[in-house]
Amino acid sequence: MHRQIVAMNNDGTYDIAYEGTDEIDANVDVQYIRKVGSGRSSLVKKFRHAVHSISAVRAFASMGTGFGAGLGLSATAESKSEQ
Predict the structure, then answer these.
(1) For the chain, how are helix, strand and coil distributed in percent, rounded to 5?
(2) Of 2, 8, 51, 83, which sits with the fewest C-beta atoms within 10 Å of its C-beta?
(3) Distance (Å, whole) CA 68 – CA 53
(4) What is the pLDDT of residue 32?
(5) What is the pLDDT of residue 77?
(6) 27's torsion region: left (phi>0), alpha (psi -120 to 50) or beta?
């Protein structure tokens, strides 16, 4: 069950709402709250995945051009086999 802080009170406590319900825990002390994830951390993972994907594409591209270039096939050999 996901929880979200909905209000910060003047005494330093927080109101916590539970996703999918109307339930709210009011005046929760900060010592009982911890961050378990953030959008920023998932963004970093997505960015790293994109960098690795680009690196892989560049590595394949440096092997040669066209489909099958890394397998020693040329575009002319592929087109002849199709006829």
Answers:
(1) 45, 20, 35
(2) 83
(3) 19
(4) 86
(5) 44
(6) left
Task: Scan for tokens 């910060």, then name that residue.
Answer: 8
List of residues 6+ apart from 5 with CB closer than 8 A: 14, 15, 16, 17, 33
Give the Cα separation of 62 and 68 in Å (integer): 13
**How much is the pLDDT for 13?**
92
User: Are the C-beta atoms of residues 7 and 25 closer than 8 Å to each other?
Assistant: no
Encoded tokens for 37: 């994830």
Q: Which residue is it, tokens 């406590």? A: 13
> How do residues 12-71 score in pLDDT, each as one tens digit?
899 999 888 889 899 999 888 877 766 666 777 888 888 888 888 888 777 765 555 555
